[in-house]
Model the fold of this input.
Amino acid sequence: MSQRTRVLRVDPVSPEADAIAIAGRAIRAGGLVAFPTETVYGLGANALDEAAIAKIFAAKSRPASDPLIVHIARFEQLPQVAQAIPAGALELCRRFWPGPLTLVLKKAPRIPANLTASLNTVAVRMPNHEVALALLQAADVPIAAPSANLFSRPSPTCARHVIDDLADRVDVVLDGGNTPIGLESTIVSLVEDEPRILRPGGMSLESLREALPNLRYEPSYLADDVMAAPAPGAMLRHYSPRARVFLFSGADDAEVYAAMRAEIAAHERVGILASDTEAREFADSDVALERLGANADEAARHLFAALRSLDQQGVDCILARVPEKRGLGLALWDRLLRAAVGSLVEVQAAPGD
Ligand code: TXA
Ligand code: MG
Done:
C-alpha cells in the first residue's frame, strides 16, 4: 500500500476525536475517506464538491450513469440535499433514521449533477453508526458515499476489503471493525405515484410496510445488455464474485443436497455458502465451506466476506441455497440472485416423494 492512504483504527462505539478530525479535514479538503456504516463501508467525499465526487467514480471505476447516496447526520441537513419533501417522507425519516433506509427524493439545486448521474432526484440517508455520524459532524457537509468496493465486487464489510480494492486510491480509511448489518441499505423511491422499493436491504419490507402500507416491490433483474435501463441499481451483475454462482431452490432437503453433490462432482474446486445445517451436511465433502450461520441476520453479516474469501481461494464455482424472503432474507435473496446472475437451479422433488 502506498504512503498516501492513512488507515486509522477507531472505536466503533466512541470513535477517537483525533482520527475523526483528520478524516473530517480530508473530506473538507476534497479528499476521499472510507468509513464504516451500520450496513457496509462507504467511500465518502463532500457531496457539494463536484471535483471530489468525480474522484469517487474514478477510484471505484464506477460508470458515471450510476448515482451515489448522500449521507447526513442531522435532519436540518435534509434541505441542503433534497427539496419539495413530502410530509410522509419526513415522517419516515423521523421513524427510521438513523438507520439502513435510503430515500429517493427531488434533488436540491446545490447537489452537483455528477453525484446524481444527471437525474433530478437524489438518494439520501442518515447512517446509524457512531463513526459515520462523527465523521459527518466533523466534516460539517453532507457526504456522498457509495459502497467502498471496486465496481461489481461485493460490498466491503471490514476495512481489509476496502484496502484490498482501493489501496492508493483513498486518502483515509477509518477502520471501525466489521459492519453490524453486512448488506446495503433499503432504497425507497418517494418520487413516483406510490412509494416503491428500488433495492431491498437492511431495513425490512415488513417494518417499512407498517409505516407505508402501499409500499410496492417488484424485483426486476436486467440482463447485461440492457444495463443502461432506467432503474439504477437494478443491473444484474452488480454483486458478482469472480466464480460462477449456482443458486439452488427446492423444498426437499435430500433432493437439493443430491443436486448440489452432483454439481460438486462436476467441478474441480467448489465453494459452498452454507447455513449451519448445510455445513453439517457437507462437512465431509471436499469443498471450500463458508459458514453463513444460523439465520438470515447472521448470513447477512457474513455473505460478502464469504464471497470474497471463496474468490481468494480460487474456487471454480459457488453453491448456495435460496433463503426465505422474510426480514433480511429478502435482501440476501436479492444479493445472491445477482451474484448468480439470475441462474437458479430449481430442484423438483422426485416422483412419489
Ligand atoms: O448501505 C448503503 O446504502 C451503502 C452505505 C455506504 O451507505 N451505500 C451504498 O451505495 O450501497 P451504492 O452506491 O453502492 O448503492 C447506491 C445505489 C445504487 O444502486 C444507485 O443506483 C442507487 O443507489 N441510487 C442512487 N441515487 C439514486 C436515484 N436518484 N434514483 C434511484 N437510485 C439511486
Ligand atoms: Mg455498491
Confidence is low (pLDDT under 50) at residues 222-236.
